Amino acid sequence: MKDTWKAEALTEEEKKNILIKRARILAGEISAEEQRKEASQIVEFILAGERYGIEAIYVREIFPLKDLTPIPCTPSFVAGVINVRHRIVSVIDIKKFFNLPESGITELNKVIILETDDMEVGILADSITGMAGIDINSLEALLPGLTDIGTEYLKGIAEGPLVILDGEKILSDKKLVVSEEVE
After folding, report:
1. Domains and CATH numbers, the chain
2. HEC states along 91-153?
3. Distance between CA atoms of 162 and 148, rounded to whole angstroms?
4. pTM score, two decimals?
5. Which site from 23, 81, 129, 179 is most exposed, i.e. has the minimal number of CB atoms within 10 Å?
6. Residue 183 exposed, middle or buried by CB count within 10 Å (0-12, 13-18, 19+)
7. CA–CA distance, 84 with 64 (Å, rounded to integer)
8. Of the candidates 9, 5, 36, which has an alpha carbon nearest to the alpha carbon of residue 21?
């Protein structure tokens, strides 16, 4: 995972702490559960005029949307693919996937590249607003009617309001895997 978003906004001490924490995670000194108990770094972005966030542990990088190639015979929420340093990454228009109001795709959109060991996918964001530290365990329950997104993709609501998406659920959802062959 790279800190390609707003890294200049962090102090040298914050950057050092992030690097130390990552080294401890890679060395196996901090389990994933222990990491979640601490304040999680959240990448904040805008979708359909609302503030959303996703835990930074799922974000590999943020990339400007350019050279999007549409793929025929795919669901409507698959925007296409992009080439990111010689890697082909599928891009999901998460507004279509979640049935949110659409405003069209422009080159001002950003692609948040999410990654786990099993999957890599880019999701479109209208814009990136920054990062925040949030205690995931203190999120409020979802209010009915607040958003059209199914609750299975949400962790909860943080102050602001900031809707926190469940990166693990998004990356493990079989609905995002397009594996049909066309004859």
Report:
1. 7-175 (2.40.50.180)
2. EECHHHHCCCCCCCCCCCCEEEEEECCCCEEEEEECEEEEEEEECHHHCECCCCCCCCCCHHH
3. 14
4. 0.71
5. 179
6. exposed
7. 10
8. 36
